[in-house]
Amino acid sequence: MKITNYLSKAKLLSVSFLLGGVAVASAHDGPKPRFIKEGKWRGEFTVSESKVPFNFELKGKDAEHATFTLINGSRRDDFHVKSIGRDSVYIKMNTYDAALVAKVEDDGSLTGEYRSLVPGFRGNSLPFKAEYGKTYRFVEPGKDVAPTADLSGKWEIKTYSKEAVPASIALLKQKGNKLTGVVMTVVGDTRELEGTVQGDEFALSGFTGPSPFIIKGKINADGSLSGEQGFGIYKNLKFDATKKADVELPDPYKLTFLKEGYKKLDFSFPGIDGKQVSLSDNKYKGKVVIVEIIGTWCPNCTDQTVFLSPWFNKNHNRGVEAIALGFEQKDSLEYAKYTLGKLRDKYAINYDIAFGGLADKKLVSQKLPALNKFIAFPTTIIIDRKGDVREIYTGYTGTVTGKYHEDYEKKFNKLLDELIAEPAPETAAVVDQPAHQGK
């Protein structure tokens, strides 16, 4: 999904937290600078006319020492804070080209917006407010209503849309009124969501840096669910859901594959270090190669990078190489050097990173014509020592999915161990493969 789509129109903020041209007054001039108070907070985004709650914690008494932590169930995501002028803060969403920009009001509360920083799209935003000392998500303490059902389990979700929507399932856990879980699709997952069940109504929200997500609805008399999913600055979709213990998504190993007649994948793209990156390069010959198609705007791509980067650093000397092929929100190599460079530095990536172009699935299919189709960011392509594609995995299954992630990790390691154990062709370091030799 693209952060550039469905963006709501920005509301102008006070001059004090505009990024450009902020004059920093003298320490002896005017009132004492204000900063976010240490402790736990509750915020609310305004999306159209709906409210999307989120929780965070601030540790540190000033920007130099502060850590801003988003809280979603058991998940924690940390960010740095910068002061702007005397009363405002800027919190970059790490490798996502977006930020929270907010003013510390006289009463200590925060008012601001979640802002896209993508060139050409700046000004698009979601307004929010946040209050100190509130730790609840949806319902204030003491105001809970006894739930009419326990939603723990696996749910098959049917989504209604004019456009094709990937199949999805929800994995939910309920304890009293507290509800946590994740929505899985063939293209990835929502990361961990946190929420509540109140009587015959339920709600879950999540905000980890990319655009906020909310799912809410009603428990029907027959035990099924009906509701709406909101993708923050994206769009809303209505859905029905039925509890079904044996429901599964389509096999992610069978969705993307090479067209008939192809065994290999060929490409050549500019690397963010200035060198061209091609599978025909000598450094890849006779090696097992992992090609990861990603975008820095994509949360599941980040999660996959968090998995792959340390794995690669541990296994590189076994005869493995990897390439991250990034498709970004702006078709600019200079912009990609910035965004993909931030990703490299944040997650200690020691494999090649190349820029493929604009984040568009049709464009990916055009630039990698050996694929039957391109479905999801990320997509993992594993190539053996002979240069043959041995496996393609569509999407990514995050740690919040429990057994699904454990199974993914086991199968990944098993296949890589097998491919690494295979002998390298004797001509691997000598013969260059001609272009278009994949057919």
TrEMBL record:
CDD domains: TlpA_like_family. Residues 258-421 form the Thioredoxin domain. The keyword Chaperone does not apply. Residues 1-27 form the signal peptide. Keywords: Signal. The keyword GTP-binding does not apply. GO terms for molecular function: oxidoreductase activity. SUPFAM superfamilies: Thioredoxin-like (SSF52833). It comes from the Bacteria. This is Peroxiredoxin. It comes from Mucilaginibacter gossypiicola.
